[in-house]
Write a structure and sequence with these properties.
- The chain is α/β, with parallel strands linked by helices.
- The protein has two domains: about 120 residues, Rossmann fold (3-Layer(aba) Sandwich), CATH 3.40.50; about 90 residues, Arc Repressor Mutant, subunit A.
- The chain is about 45% helix and about 20% strand.
- It contains eight helices and eleven strands.
- It has a five-stranded parallel sheet, sandwiched between helices. A four-stranded antiparallel sheet has the order 6-7-8-9, covered by helices on one side. The chain has a two-stranded antiparallel sheet with strand order 10-11.
- Helix 4 links the parallel strand 4 and strand 5.
- Helix 2 runs parallel beside helix 3, helix 6 packs across helix 7 and helix 6 packs across helix 8.
- The chain is globular, with a radius of gyration of 18 Å.
- The model has no long low-confidence stretch (mean pLDDT about 85).
- One of its GO terms (biological process) is regulation of DNA-templated transcription.
- One of its GO terms (cellular component) is cytosol.
- Keywords: DNA-binding, Phosphoprotein, Transcription, Transcription regulation, Two-component regulatory system.
- Pfam families: Response_reg, Trans_reg_C.
- This is Proteobacterial dedicated sortase system response regulator.
């Protein structure tokens, strides 16, 4: 049974392009041009994954409203925010509302497909009985690599797929500096340096919200980042 992906995007060219590509990959695609039509459809039947533009026609935060609706209907449905805007305020607001990842419209199609596949993989893994897994423990940090879950002091940390692979790159060799290019390579993404910086800042904030004394992700100016024990 093919997975169903909903795309909510008010730009017809972008909507048609992504519909064609995702259909070509074997997904069933449901495309919507605005929040009301998507909202009505979601109230009747949920997709397996939703890609939502934040600004929808005259509703600058219509995507956030849809995300809230979806989260009330399902806590586990993967949601990707898709936007031309790339700033921390939008991103943090979106992730607090329950989005699983946040991608700007200049990403490559290969990157989007990789993110979708990763989210489906994580959803499938979380739905299966827990078996022996590949875990990394560093002090209070516990990372289950096979299930793509993270906890700090036994409290779950809600990282996006992108953030998870960045963290994984840092903790594989604690104390060793990872350049922005290495983080891009290991998290399977191609973005500019400022986007890498934004991901790191958001990841730090999630840990600090759980533990004000958290200070394990270091910025090594001019070089990159490292996990410091």
């Amino acid at each position: 049974m093919p997975k169903t992906i909903a795309i909510v995007e008010d730009d017809i060219a972008i909507r048609d392009n992504y519909t064609a590509v995702l259909s070509g990959q074997g997904y069933t695609v449901q495309a919507y041009a605005d929040r009301p039509s998507a909202s009505l459809a979601f109230s009747q039947s949920l997709p397996d994954l939703a890609i939502i533009d934040i600004g929808l026609n005259d509703e600058m935060e219509g995507g956030f409203m849809l995300c809230q609706q979806l989260r009330q209907l399902s806590q586990s449905l993967p949601i990707i925010f898709f936007t031309a805007r790339d700033n921390d305020v939008d991103t943090i607001s979106g992730l607090r509302m329950g989005a699983d990842d946040y991608l700007t419209k200049d990403i490559s199609m290969a990157h989007l497909l990789a993110r979708i596949a990763a989210l489906f993989r994580r959803t499938d893994l979380l739905a299966t009985p827990k078996q022996d897994s590949d875990t990394i423990r560093l002090g209070h940090l516990n990372v289950d690599v096979s299930r793509m879950t993270v906890s700090w002091k036994d409290i779950p940390v809600a990282l996006t797929v992108t953030e998870f692979w960045m963290l994984h790159a840092l903790i594989k060799r604690p104390g060793h500096v990872k350049s922005r290019q290495q983080l891009m390579d290991e998290s399977r993404m191609v973005v500019d340096d400022s986007t890498i910086t934004s991901h790191i800042k958001r990841m730090r904030k999630k840990f600090v919200q759980l533990d004000e004394s958290f200070d394990h992700i270091d910025t090594v100016y001019g070089m990159g980042y490292r996990w410091q024990q």
